[in-house]
Structures are given as C-alpha cells and as structure tokens.
Amino acid sequence: MYGSGEIKKYSFKNDYSEGAHPHILLSLAARSTETNCPYGMDKHSEAAADMIRERCKAPNAEVAFIAGGTATNALAISLFLRNPYEAAICAVTGHINVHETGAIENTGHKVINVPSDGDGKITPELIQPVLDWHNCEHMVVPKLVYVSQSTELGTIYTKAELTALSEYCRKNGLYLYLDGARLGSALMAKENDLTLEDIAALTDAFYIGGTKNGLLFGEALVMLNEEMRENYRYMIKQKGYMLAKGYVVGTMFEAAFKDGLFFGMALHENEAAEKIADAIRSTGFEFYAKPQTNQIFVILPDALADELVDEFGCNIESRLANGKSAARIVTSWATTDEAVNALSEWFLTKYCAGLLKEMMK
Amino acid sequence: MYGSGEIKKYSFKNDYSEGAHPHILLSLAARSTETNCPYGMDKHSEAAADMIRERCKAPNAEVAFIAGGTATNALAISLFLRNPYEAAICAVTGHINVHETGAIENTGHKVINVPSDGDGKITPELIQPVLDWHNCEHMVVPKLVYVSQSTELGTIYTKAELTALSEYCRKNGLYLYLDGARLGSALMAKENDLTLEDIAALTDAFYIGGTKNGLLFGEALVMLNEEMRENYRYMIKQKGYMLAKGYVVGTMFEAAFKDGLFFGMALHENEAAEKIADAIRSTGFEFYAKPQTNQIFVILPDALADELVDEFGCNIESRLANGKSAARIVTSWATTDEAVNALSEWFLTKYCAGLLKEMMK
Amino acid sequence: MYGSGEIKKYSFKNDYSEGAHPHILLSLAARSTETNCPYGMDKHSEAAADMIRERCKAPNAEVAFIAGGTATNALAISLFLRNPYEAAICAVTGHINVHETGAIENTGHKVINVPSDGDGKITPELIQPVLDWHNCEHMVVPKLVYVSQSTELGTIYTKAELTALSEYCRKNGLYLYLDGARLGSALMAKENDLTLEDIAALTDAFYIGGTKNGLLFGEALVMLNEEMRENYRYMIKQKGYMLAKGYVVGTMFEAAFKDGLFFGMALHENEAAEKIADAIRSTGFEFYAKPQTNQIFVILPDALADELVDEFGCNIESRLANGKSAARIVTSWATTDEAVNALSEWFLTKYCAGLLKEMMK
Amino acid sequence: MYGSGEIKKYSFKNDYSEGAHPHILLSLAARSTETNCPYGMDKHSEAAADMIRERCKAPNAEVAFIAGGTATNALAISLFLRNPYEAAICAVTGHINVHETGAIENTGHKVINVPSDGDGKITPELIQPVLDWHNCEHMVVPKLVYVSQSTELGTIYTKAELTALSEYCRKNGLYLYLDGARLGSALMAKENDLTLEDIAALTDAFYIGGTKNGLLFGEALVMLNEEMRENYRYMIKQKGYMLAKGYVVGTMFEAAFKDGLFFGMALHENEAAEKIADAIRSTGFEFYAKPQTNQIFVILPDALADELVDEFGCNIESRLANGKSAARIVTSWATTDEAVNALSEWFLTKYCAGLLKEMMK
C-alpha cells in the first residue's frame, strides 16, 4: 500500500514521487567537481543555514541537514530526551506514533499519545491530564510535545493555537518540537498566519521539509533551544545520519532558499490542491478534514473512493461507517494543470452521475 | 580535523569531497518529473538491484540502497544480530570500532576487537582466541565477523585470505560481513583476485559503496544470507534509513552499473593513486602500508608530513615514534592529472631537498 | 504517593509492606552455611522448578527465578520480541503501559495500548483493530499480548475468557504472556475456574509472583514456548537480573510450594479481602470493580476516601466525577483479623453516620 | 564452568556459594511482620544509608540498595553517561568488559578497554592515549573510568594510586566509578591504606558489595556526584532494579553495619586467604598475582591445577604457556578452619611429592 503498486497516468498519491525541481538539479550539476568539506561543514550548508537563520530571525540557531523525516524526528527527540525515562507526547494520529515503525521507542523513549481534536491538532487541554497522571518514578517523565505543521490531516495550527501550546509547554517544562515535513505548504496556505519567525520564536526546534517540497531529499533541522545542541553532531554521527557528502543537501537547500524557489514550489502545490478542493466544493461531496494545504481529504462512497484510488493513485485514509471512505489526494511540486483538470473533471462527472442515478430511482 | 578546514588547491584529503560524476547527475535530471513508487520500490532500484545480482551471480540476493556507510553497517549488523547479547568481531582498526561514534554499541551490541596483523586485515588465527574465551552466559556470544575491502589501510584481502575467513566463519557459526565503502577501488586493484561473484559466494552480506565512488551518496547492501532478510524493511524504516525518494539512489546505481561507469571511476582513482605511489617509490620514502588501492600511506618526518597536510589537504594517520608520521593520501573519481603531477613533484622535490640537506651537514 | 508516607496502625496500602512468612525465613536459616551452585543452577531452584512443572503439568517448561515483577516482565517480553520493530499489546491500564517507567520501551519495543472493557481485561474484539491497522513496514509488528491475572483492578479472567484470548493469539501469530504478580490470589479466588495447568496450556509464558505472596522477593517465570527460551540465561545476565546467590529465591519457592504454603498465604489474603467486601456490601457503598481477589476497589465521597487513606494507608485509584473517588484496599499474607475488623467497622460506622446526616437535613 | 558442577566437600570456588551470616538472617526474622514503606523508602534503608554516609564522612551522599553487582554497574554507568555517545574506560580485564554479557553496551554505551599493568589495575598513563585519540564526533566521548577494588586479580589500589587516578579524572572531565563487589575484603586487607572516607572523597560513586560479603544479596551504591543523582530513582525503576520490598536489603545492610559485622566477615575472608597464601609461600609455588585480599591466584602445573579444581572447586583463571595454569582460590564469610587446613595441607603435600618425584629422576 505504501510503496508498491502500478504508476497511474496522473498520480495524487503523495508529494514524494517525483525527483527534484530542475533548478535544484542544476545547482548540483554546477558544483559537480567543486571540492567541499565533508560531513556538512561546507560553505553551501553554511550559506543555506544562514538564509534559514535570517528568515527565522534566529541568528543563534543551529541548522543541521538530515536525509529524511523519520531520521530527523528520531534525532531531534533524542537530542531533547537525554534520559531514557523521558517521554514524548503527541496526537494519537502523530507520525511518530503510528508511521515510523516505533523509531522513537527504539531509541528507548515512550511515546504517550493523546486524542486529537478530530483535525490532527492537540491543545493544552488535551495534554494536561497526561501531566496530572505522571507524578512519580513509577511512570515516565513527559518532557516534549510533538506537533506537525501541516498535520497528518492537512490542517494547520493558527498563530493563536501554536502560541497557546508554546506558552503551556514553557510553563510546564516541556519542549515543543514541530515536524515540518510539509512546512512549506503550511507556510504558503491562504489561511496561514504563522511566519518562520513566529515558529522559531514559539518552538524549541522544528524542521523544514525538503523531501516533500521539491528536493531530491533532505530536511533542515532548526535547533533553537541551546540544551538540545550539546554535542548534537555526535548524535547525528552515532545514528548513522551524517552524510559524508553533506554539501549535497546543503547545496539543494541553498538553491531552494536563494530565490524563493522553496516557497514557489509550495505555492504551486497549494494552488493545485485548491483548484481540486474548489472542484469538490462545487459538487456535494464533503471533506473529511478542512482543506488548507496540499493534502485534501474527501469523503466518498466506498466504491467511488476505490475508483479514485485506482485512477489517480490516491490512498484510502480511513474506512468510515455507513459505506463511506475518506480518501487522500496530495499535490506535489510536479503536479501538472492537466492532472488537476482531469481530477476536477472526474469529481464533477462522478457527482453528476450519482445525482442522475438517484433521480432515476 | 575530519570535516573542517580550508579547501586546498589540490585536495587528497578523501574520496568524498567532490559531488557526483556528470553521467550520474544526468541520470537524475533525465528522470526529474517521472513519477516513481516511493520507499525504494521503484523500477530504477529494481533495475540496479538486478544488475548487481547479475554481476554477483546471486539471483536470490536482496539489495537495499542506503544513504551512507555507517547507516549501512548499523543496519546490516542489526539484521544479523537479532539478540542483544550477540557481538561483532572486527580488527581494532575497524571502522565500526573506532570511527562510527559507537553506532553498533548504540544498537545494544558489543564490538569485540582483535589486533589486526599490521595491515588492517584479520585472520582465523586472530579470531580463534575470542571464540575460545567466550564460552558461557556471563559473556556475549560472538556471532559476526566484520571486515572491510579495501581495509582502513588501503590493503586488500586476497581470494585465499577471504576464503579462509569464510570457511572459518561457516565452520564456527559466525556470519561474515564485508564493508565495501571502497569496494570499487578494491575490485579494480591490480593485485586483486576477487570478483563480485567471489565476494557474494564467500560472505553473508556486503555493501558496494557509492559515496566514495562518484555518486552523490548511497550504498548498495547485498543481502545473501536469508536469515538476515526477515522483515529487513521494517528495520530500515525503524532506524530512519528509508528514503521516501528511494528511487534517487536507485537511479544513480542504475546509471553507475549500466555501462561500467562505476568500475571506470574506481579505475581512475586507482590509476591516480598508482602514479603517486610510483613517484614515492622513486624517492626513498617508505610506505606505512602496502599501496594497493586509492589510499596511500606514506611515512615522512613530522615536519614534512605537516607540510603535506598543509599543501594537499591530507590527513595524519598516526604519529609514529622517532619523529616520523604516517600520512594518508586519497584519490577520488575527480582527481585530476594536474593534481597528481603536483603531488608527485612535491615528493621528488622534498626528497631531494632532504638529501641535499643531509649532504650539506 | 507510592513509596513514602507514615506507617499506619493498620495498613491496607499494598501486599508488599511486610517481609516474609516465618516458614520462608526458616528455610533460609536452615541452609545458611550450605554450599550451593551460584547463578540459579542449584538444587533448591531445581526442586522448586520441578514442583512448578509438576503443578503445571508442563514437564518441559523452563523456570527462571527473578527478583521482581518489572524485571520479569522486561525479561519475558525481550525473550519473545527479539526484533526491535515488534510490539506488545496490552490494556491501557496494563502495568507495563503505565507503572513501569517505560521499561519495555527502554528495551526498544513499542507498547500498543487498547481500551480495556472497564474491568482491566482485554478481549480478541479489542485487539482485532490493532492487527487490522498494522499492515506494513511503516508500522510496528504487533507480536505479543500482555494480560495480568489478577488484573490491575483485582478482577480475574475466566477459563472461557483466557481460552478465547489464547485461541485468538495462536490463530494470529501472537504470543500470550500473563503477568502473575498476584497469581496466587487469583488462583485461590472463589470464582476462579482456572488452574495452573490451564494457564500453562493457554499461555506462552507466565510468572508466579512471590513478592506479593509472602516471600522476601522473587518471581518464578514459567517459559512454555520453546522459541523464547533460546539463550534465555544470556538475556537474564545481560539485563543485570542474574543473582549470584540465585539459590536464595529457589529456596524460598521450594519452601512455598512444598506444603502448599504459597496457596495458603493467598487464601489468607482472599479471605481477609472477602470479609471486608462483605462489610462494604452490608452498607450502601458501591464497588468500582467487582471484588474477586485481594484488591478491593470501593467508591466513596472524596472526603471519606481521603479519610480512608489517612487511617488505613489505602490509595486513591482515581478521582471520579461528581465528588467521588475510587479507593483501593489491599490485603496481604500478614493482614490480621484485628485489622480486618477495624476496617469493616469503619465502613459500617461511616455509612451509618452518612445516613444519619442525610436524615438530619 | 560458572554456575554448574558438583559441590565439593571444601569449596574455594567463590565467595557467593553460601547464604547469609546468621545475624543477617536474624535481622530479617525479627522484622518479619513489621510494616514498612516499599520501594526502598523505609526506615531500615534510611538507617543503613545514614551509617554508610557517616563512615564515608559524606553527609550529602545518596545511597541506593540494588540486588546485584551487574545491575549496580549498569545503573551507575547509566546515571553518569546520559548521552549514548559517551563511553566508559576500563581495564581489559574489567568485569564490565568481559563478565557482564555486554550489559553496558546493551544500554547503548561503548566500553573502551585499556591494557592493565598486569595486576588488573589501570593508571593515568594507560588512559591518556584514549583521550588523545578520541577527539571528534566520529568517535565516542570517553567520560567515565571504571575500576574495581579489589580488582579481578585480588589486588588493591593504594591511596596514592587511587588519588592519582582521581586527580587525573577530575582534571580531564572524567567520572571515576569504583566497583566494590569485594570492597569489604579490600578495606580489611593488611596492606590497605584506603578508608571508606578516602574512597568517598576520591570517587564520584562506588558501591559496597553485600553479596560477596555475607548478605543474602544486595549492594549499596554510594552516589557522591550530584549530576548522577538527577532522577536516579526513575532509572532504577525503569531498569527493573527497584525492589518492592526494598527494606529487605536495607535491613540486611543495617544489620551488617550496626556492629561492624560487615567488616568482621571481610576480615574472616582475608585471614582464611592469608593462611592459605602462607601455606603456598612455604612451598615453592608462585603466585600469578600478589595475594592481598580474599582471592589467591597461584601458578601450578596443569595437572595439579586440574586436581585443585577437582578437589577444592576452584577455577582455572588462565592457561599459561609452558604447561602451567593460574588457578583461583576464593575464601568466603563461611570458610571454615577445617577447609583452610585441608587446602594448606594439600599444597604442602603436592609440593613435596613434586620435589620427591624430581629427586627420583
């Protein structure tokens, strides 16, 4: 279901099925024979880090470039939770809780899950009972809150929401870590009111996802809290995450941030998603979660959902009750107008066909 | 010392300071907007794996593409040592013993080191005392032997040596795992008598290093033993080593193996190293280890060694007694004739100057 | 809350606040200067294991004596889950999920919790969604089901219930492990229809708790499944659980099982608890969970619950809504009639006083 | 070899083959039905800790009672090494390096071994090369030095030696941890010039071994350094080392320290060992290590060593070259005069017989 299967003519399966934007590839080609310091201590990584620090207004932040999202999460959480009896809190739908094959537990730490409020987001109110309950040495010490922006359901935290979480965490001695696998799309969302500067001010660390935003691979972990940074390169190396040719990721992030390409690609994803959401809205189909970023969750009759999967390579997120399913549509940096139009048309056609069938009864 | 420092005009610091061969980059560019299955289940990874299986004459081998060497070692050893009380044996100079920040121990396993025979290689005779000693539940269970080809000192195992090790391991219930970070260079060495087919027949697993052989990054882990393969993709994912865009590595290995480019780049490395070794031989300087592959270890007076580091970005391998040092010279896929000539000339000049000074006394 | 606080005249705080039964101590004194093989390979451990095997009608079972319950759980689960991506399933109230400071996660494994059906027990129906959901390498592999007998709420599985779980586990490739910290009390419960022989036939491993059943310390892990036994003594040693003087635990279990003392002590616990439960029943106070073993959970107004804690050293299990609390009363091998009478009287007095107050209004 | 084998009439196999001194057992019997706070928070543990603090002149030390030596080592080292990339240094003969089944590595940390100077002891000079070598993030961070008093070879560090180590460690940011499995015997050694007060002043933590000094089981970990103490009870619980009836160990240590019984038992061990050493000295047999405590290592012809093992349950420490073996003789709190005389006589007889045979040639 995750990795296998036939490639469709138009694929809305995910945002990591097409390589990298040509400008990104060009940046690599241009430096093909250039000699660089290895292990991420090169000038391109440094330049990329500088641009990120600048946009975050966080001149003292450390930035590390890591190959993938699960690795970045495992690294960041290990840097925060230096004691094995310390635990991370996340939504029951959180990526670290369900989709990373127990990577956090494998580093020795418990992941405590709290119910999300239906849109993949968590709040201080949902976290409080965990703190109340864990009060002695027979239980783990909750020490970090993990959130994703955008969430697993494509929704985004507002500035007010993230601020409330941040204040709560600081008051209660919890680190706040934000998984930004799709941060580009979240930042460029129409309804978004959070800047990189805000996020840097409100969290202890977060990462800017490159893999799902038009790079060959790579995530930029922005470490704001000084405690987590102690000997962080030792941790990167020990976990097998230190790339000899670290400048490869640095070069791609440099290219992505120099002229705003990173944000341009995210915008492209969102605009494509928006057109599809508009098409869906023009029918009577309902959304499973509010469409805000490059992931659209739509509720369809089971058979129609299966058809969508079959024709456009989407995923079934969940089988709901009453013969309906929630299907996930994802746009990428490489999604074409042609594909968007084909999918929009599909929705219209299917909806009308449904209406007609209903009338015929 | 490892990652930092100024870039020299000519750098012989290592074989991972220059990006990727243009043909490799072209292969990525050509597939920029192609849609591929994620997580390494794509047609390019499959094609590359097929070519590797073919060259290994191992039609049933599983091949996984991993971002870097430390990750590949940690993965492979975890796949072999499923019980935490099982241990790996390696030379005291072995990469997993000294240069991976305790990555193996961090997965819970002891690394037992044995003295190497001076050239970085180990033999059944060196391993036997470890087996004799570990005989009850108060000690770990030695279960795997780790070797590198080429070794940390640039030397290579002969077919007779690897066969002896392999037979010994099989007789004693030990897995034999070969770290091939520089396997390309080893295979193309003049004195080499081992083929990929031999290595596949003699080991339980090995990897073909791409990072140090002209790829942007990536290693191909060839899993021959069926026991280690059980649920190996779960282990890759849990460790954070599964790349969403796995086809990126697959595409590069496909390009490297299609027309022999991989071996051509290795040959280039060796030829450059050989010219330098010849130049050194024409002087009176001695080698610290027999020059066989793309790493040359030369013994120089301390001051001269420091000068070499300073001018050509080499590393000091070891400070020896009597005011001498062993310096490491490494060639890469991108090493130019100009650089080779400059370094050769340097040796000649320095040697003559030394002679002159001696005569002047 | 757990370990501290003043000692009350009568304590119903737990079943591990008084040392060992005099007969147990005598058995140790009698062997004070006897020379024994260390590390659990002595004749007393062997004799105790034989008696346990005999009672279980499991002549091939291996029995290991471990110092405490958390250690025994961590050991057993490590023996079953040899791969780090394998996970244990338990009730959300399960001891390994909440009261062992993440000991299982610290060995690298995820603990997946399922809601219990209100009495601390789980069923195949509650487990099925976990199996449905975990279907690929991006998620852990559920591999073991953990239950407690008696449960955290003092209830017991019936033979029908445990048989259903056992059949379900075997059909689905799951190990079934039973935490018997209070197995003595469960076996001697009036409503119990499960014998040691049944439990040995239905589970893959379980332990017979000594600490909470009148021994100085010690649990007997009964390993039925052959897979888990591979090199189990290495695992015991590596975790720091192998006692040099293992014969100390062996001797105590030998003494406890020779003349039925173990079961006599459990019966004593249950009879004391039953008298208290009867006294509560004679009032109008309600139970939070069905009283079946040596743990009684009663619902009281908050103030009264606090008074109970204050006078009889009980614990508050949970603050309920509407101004009420669930309090836990535990009897031990050393609980006296005097204490039981005092507590029973307290309930009667308090209930009458409440009625009177109500009438006075 | 370790745990199995027939029990001999006189056993000098180890110091943990006989239960506990009668006074220790009496202390448990006297408190059989006393109610105590669980988890080590009881008045007996507190009283024992107070006596230890008093003898150490370390009023602020924390003392924790743990069931066994491997557990205590794993706990202490985990408390010092909070980061997985930090490593412990010990003699190649160190208990944590060879006889704990990789317990330290299983907590994620590398154990770096240095050659000992032949008597099981290490010095600053032996440690320095490790610090020189480990200088960047590609290698672990050496952070703790582990020594044993007495050592694995029965020798003891002098005050000058331990002071030199302590000063070296403090100067170099290394913690100094002393494994005192046989600390009683070391403290009572004739040549000893170190007091408990000295050891407390010179180390960051150490433990006082009870298991090998006449207790049923139990070690007292004395934590002097404040850094290691942070949430140490969480670590004890998570590792499965927290005994519900912690007061059992506390009571035994209280009894052992109240009237000097602990030191009396150690003295008894040493005096028995000394008589045996004197007997050996009166022959021409040589020692493998200087006899100072309750372990004697003697060099014998192979056949004679085997006979010693056969008759007195000793162990072969090492097969030496030239047909000789080093055998280990250990005395315990329960060693009788009769046994000592029998063994002494054996040495005399065997030596004379050897002389006679030689003369007859």
What does this structure look like?
4 copies of one chain form a homotetramer. With 361 residues, chain A is an alpha/beta fold. The first copy, chain A, has helices at residues 22-30, 43-56, 69-80, 95-98, 103-106, 124-133, 159-171, 183-187, 196-202, 226-229, 232-238, 247-258, 261-281, 302-312, 337-360, and strands at 62-66, 86-91, 111-114, 141-148, 175-179, 205-209, 219-223, 286-287, 295-301, 315-319, 324-330. In chain A, strands 1-7-6-5-4-2-3 form a 7-stranded mixed sheet, sandwiched between helices. A 4-stranded antiparallel sheet of chain A has the order 8-9-11-10. The two termini of chain A are 36 Å apart. The interface between A and B is large, with 62 and 62 residues.
Give Rg of chain A in angstroms.
21 Å
Q: Assign an overall shape of chain A.
A: globular
Which pair of chains has the greatest number of interface residues, and how are they split between the two chains?
A: A-B, 62 and 62 residues
Order of helices and strands of chain A, N to C? Answer: HHEHEHHEHEHEHHEEHHHHEEHEEH
Quaternary form: homotetramer
**Amount of helix of chain A:** 40-55%
Instruction: Give the helix tally of chain A.
Output: 15
Describe the secondary-structure layout.
The structure is a homotetramer.
Chain A: H1 22-30, H2 43-56, E1 62-66, H3 69-80, E2 86-91, H4 95-98, H5 103-106, E3 111-114, H6 124-133, E4 141-148, H7 159-171, E5 175-179, H8 183-187, H9 196-202, E6 205-209, E7 219-223, H10 226-229, H11 232-238, H12 247-258, H13 261-281, E8 286-287, E9 295-301, H14 302-312, E10 315-319, E11 324-330, H15 337-360
Parallel strand pairs in A: 2-3, 2-4, 4-5, 5-6
Antiparallel strand pairs in A: 1-7, 6-7, 8-9, 9-11, 10-11
Helix pairs in contact in A: 1-12, 2-12, 13-15
